[in-house]
Amino acid sequence: MYCPQCGRQMPDDANNCPNCGRDFRQEGQESMEPPRPGRSEIAKAYGTIPNHLALSIIAIFLCLPFGIAGLIQSLKVDQFIRSGDFEAAKMFSEKAKTYGMIGVIVGGVLIVLSVILSVVFGFWVFSWMGRFRY
Fold first, then answer.
1. Distance from C-alpha of 54 to C-alpha of 14, rounded to nearest angstrom
2. Does residue 43 belong to any structural domain of this protein?
3. Which of 21, 68, 97, 119 has the highest CB neighbour number within 10 Å of its CB?
4. Count of domains in the chain?
5. Quick one: 124 and 68 in the same domain?
6. Angle at Cα 117 formed by Cα 113 and Cα 122, nearest 5°?
7. pTM of the complete model
8. Does 62 share its domain with 123?
9. pLDDT of 85-119, one tens digit each?
10. 42 occurs within a structural domain
11. Which residues contact 9 (CB under 8 A, 6 or more apart)?
12. What is the pLDDT of residues 18-55, one digit of tens each?
């Protein structure tokens, strides 16, 4: 249980906070969530948990659906880092990377296929047009 006044952890059966002395007998001993991480912890997490935003933006240009999905996951990474939920931030970081890579691969394959089909179709059209003499 955490003290809602000072945020320190205290025993579950405590009637008063050992740090600030707040009395819980009349409040029903409501527990508070753990305090949010400090700026230094958040700054360290920004350096260690990548959001893969650049990969998602590249994927948007190559394959829009996967790029948008990756972009949404990337933005959730930053949101969870700011709230202090680093495990969720890591999970969404992996999802952003996965969607971004799928978008880049699918988009690259589609571009290569379109170039190949354009060349093949172009040779076919020019060979077909060569049969007619004006």
1. 50
2. no
3. 97
4. 2
5. yes
6. 150
7. 0.63
8. yes
9. 889 999 999 999 999 999 999 999 999 999 999 99
10. no
11. 1, 2, 3, 34
12. 777 777 665 544 455 566 667 777 777 777 899 999 99
